[in-house]
């Protein structure tokens, strides 16, 4: 493939999926979000500024797609997500089971913090974007990113019973 734009998007797809899962909390919906993001990126390729980071541009597209999808879903009525995932259970050993339990506990704790704090936490700590990139993606000042991140970390540690961690 001779197109660097396409290659960069393909290389970044796993990161987009992780962010989409953190927003939607549903793997099937996350795949739809990633597909929509890629489609919008290719359709609006001409508007991409090569002086900016493609990663931040794609994350912003994905976040906007999530907002659009959420607004659209409000008019559809209640949908029941599939909570049972028998494919997660396995006989992979004690460490894998403990890891899954810790991830589940972390997921539940993240659901308890405010969406604004969760967005910043996911972008900076999971997606590893800079504070400035997070500010650009969320369209907020960098100081707000830093304060939300500090509050998110503190709230998450409290929710997980890690009192005293600062």
TrEMBL record:
<comment type="similarity">
    <text>Belongs to the sigma-70 factor family. ECF subfamily.</text>
</comment>
<dbReference type="InterPro" id="IPR013324">
    <property type="entry name" value="RNA_pol_sigma_r3/r4-like"/>
</dbReference>
<feature type="domain" description="RNA polymerase sigma-70 region 2">
    <location>
        <begin position="11"/>
        <end position="74"/>
    </location>
</feature>
<keyword id="KW-0805">Transcription regulation</keyword>
<dbReference type="InterPro" id="IPR007627">
    <property type="entry name" value="RNA_pol_sigma70_r2"/>
</dbReference>
<dbReference type="GO" id="GO:0016987">
    <property type="term" value="F:sigma factor activity"/>
</dbReference>
<protein>
    <submittedName>
        <fullName>RNA polymerase subunit sigma-70</fullName>
    </submittedName>
</protein>
<keyword id="KW-0804">Transcription</keyword>
<dbReference type="InterPro" id="IPR013249">
    <property type="entry name" value="RNA_pol_sigma70_r4_t2"/>
</dbReference>
<feature type="domain" description="RNA polymerase sigma factor 70 region 4 type 2">
    <location>
        <begin position="105"/>
        <end position="156"/>
    </location>
</feature>
<dbReference type="InterPro" id="IPR039425">
    <property type="entry name" value="RNA_pol_sigma-70-like"/>
</dbReference>
<dbReference type="Pfam" id="PF04542">
    <property type="entry name" value="Sigma70_r2"/>
</dbReference>
<dbReference type="InterPro" id="IPR014284">
    <property type="entry name" value="RNA_pol_sigma-70_dom"/>
</dbReference>
<dbReference type="InterPro" id="IPR036388">
    <property type="entry name" value="WH-like_DNA-bd_sf"/>
</dbReference>
<dbReference type="InterPro" id="IPR013325">
    <property type="entry name" value="RNA_pol_sigma_r2"/>
</dbReference>
<keyword id="KW-0731">Sigma factor</keyword>
<dbReference type="GO" id="GO:0003677">
    <property type="term" value="F:DNA binding"/>
</dbReference>
<dbReference type="GO" id="GO:0006352">
    <property type="term" value="P:DNA-templated transcription initiation"/>
</dbReference>
<dbReference type="Pfam" id="PF08281">
    <property type="entry name" value="Sigma70_r4_2"/>
</dbReference>
């Amino acid at each position: 493939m001779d197109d660097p734009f396409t290659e960069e998007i393909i290389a970044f797809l796993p990161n987009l999926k992780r962010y989409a899962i953190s927003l939607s909390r549903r793997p099937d919906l996350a795949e739809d979000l990633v597909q929509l993001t890629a489609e919008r990126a290719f359709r609006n390729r001409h508007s991409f500024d090569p002086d900016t980071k493609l990663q931040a541009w794609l994350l912003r597209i994905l976040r906007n797609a999530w907002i659009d999808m959420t607004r659209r879903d409000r008019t559809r009525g209640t949908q029941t997500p599939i909570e049972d995932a028998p494919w997660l259970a396995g006989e992979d050993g004690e460490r894998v089971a403990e890891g899954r339990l810790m991830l589940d506990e972390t997921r539940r704790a993240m659901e308890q913090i405010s969406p604004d704090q969760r967005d910043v936490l996911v972008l900076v700590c999971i997606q590893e974007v800079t504070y400035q990139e997070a500010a650009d993606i969320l369209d907020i000042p960098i100081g707000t990113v830093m304060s939300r991140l500090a509050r998110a970390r503190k709230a998450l540690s409290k929710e997980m019973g890690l009192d005293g961690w600062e």
